[in-house]
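Hi V.,

You were right to ask for the full record rather than a summary. Here it is.
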Amino acid sequence: MGAAAVIFDLDGTLVDSAEDIAEAVNRTLDALSLPRVSDTTVRGWIGEGVRRLVATALAHAGSERGLDATMPLFMRHYHDCLLRSPRLYDGVADALQRLQRRGVPMAICTNKPSALVPPLLDHLGIAAGFTHIVGGDTLPQRKPAPEPLLHAAHLLNQAPADCLMVGDSATDLGAANAAGMPIVLVGYGYPRDLDLASAGALAVIDDLRQLDAWT
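Predicted structure:
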């Protein structure tokens, strides 16, 4: 039996936004007279929320500047860079349309600040398929804690075990396991140090159209 609903991670699963996030980080570093970092470096920092991202960037630069003092500066650049050059991964639009046509309920569960999610979905033309968005600031907890996924399942009126999580990282895997929710991982995105082959997911897929097998 297929999943009753699907809950997607955003960055690294549906959308490749690493270059835009890296530019926001680098504009922040520029403003603080700190050295820029490569897109590849920032790609390895994505997934655990903006505060962790900025804290990592400051630590990498050897800066003792306070995180609370830096966050407003970063968030201005993050807003400015949000729609700079994001792109959907291959197959995403088609996969979402298939699920939508079949009436499968879908939600987003991301550690991205919730206010930044609708503009990004609208820009990429995929907003219509999602009935709910759980962002990194929706609850006191964020992934890999289970609460965001449990909240998303509740909004979808489904038991966690009847939903399918789709993500790309250890953050998603940890949240799904803690929530008792099955997960499919994508083989692209920002896995950081996650060994996809031994993660214990239902599957590792290279194209979201392969989700037909579980929905």
